[in-house]
């Protein structure tokens, strides 16, 4: 199995999806395929992010496996100390993720953030930002 990733957002906060495929695609070929699928779904997707919409279309029409939280068996955070190494719990609608504020925040504290299932957040600070569509969900 070969793995591919699609990113959306900037260097600080963004979304990424992971895909698997039994065939190895050259990076340029995968890039061209993603661009073609983006054009197909950009104006009509119902997923929370464009990257998820592209991943789902690649799964439906091109034999990719969109690796989602539904397939996740366990998630473990590891750190240099025992306190920084723990199992991330997952509920029906959200995963509980523990993050620490950076030195520019209100001090170093552990914080609990509920992240909607299926949402992947890349963070360099304690902020978790969601797309406008995710924020508008009831």
Give structural notes.
With 138 residues, the protein is of the alpha+beta class. It has two domains: 2-67, Alpha-Beta Plaits; 72-125, no CATH class. It is 23% helix and 27% strand. It has three helices and seven strands. It has a three-stranded antiparallel β-sheet with strand order 1-2-3, covered by helices on one side. A two-stranded antiparallel ribbon has the order 4-5. Helix 1 crosses helix 2. The chain starts with a strand and ends with a helix. Mean pLDDT is 74; it is low at 106-138.
- N-to-C order of helices and strands: EEHHEEEEEH
Largest sheet, in brief, is:
3 strands, antiparallel
Shape: globular
- Estimate the strand proportion: 25-35%
CATH hierarchy: architecture of the largest domain: 2-Layer Sandwich
Helix content: 10-25%
Number of domains: 2
- What is the typical, i.e. mean, pLDDT? 74
Q: What's the CATH topology label of the largest domain? A: Alpha-Beta Plaits
Please count the beta strands (DSSP E, at least 2 residues each). 7
The structural class is alpha+beta
Order of the strands making up the biggest sheet: 1-2-3
Cα gyration radius (Å): 17 Å
Number of helices: 3
Cα distance, first to last residue? 37 Å
Low-confidence stretches: 106-138
CATH class term of the largest domain = Alpha Beta
């Amino acid at each position: 199995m070969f793995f591919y990733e699609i990113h959306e957002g900037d260097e600080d906060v963004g979304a990424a999806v992971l895909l698997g495929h039994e065939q190895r695609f050259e990076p340029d070929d995968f890039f061209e395929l993603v661009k073609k699928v983006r054009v197909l779904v950009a104006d009509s997707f119902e997923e929370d992010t464009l990257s998820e919409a592209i991943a789902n279309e690649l799964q439906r029409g091109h034999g990719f496996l969109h690796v989602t939280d539904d397939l996740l068996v366990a998630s473990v955070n590891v750190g240099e100390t025992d306190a920084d190494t723990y199992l991330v719990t997952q509920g029906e609608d959200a995963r509980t993720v523990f993050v620490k504020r950076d030195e520019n925040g209100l001090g170093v504290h552990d914080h609990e953030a509920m992240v909607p299932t299926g949402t992947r957040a890349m963070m360099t600070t304690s902020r978790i930002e969601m797309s406008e569509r995710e924020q508008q969900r009831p």
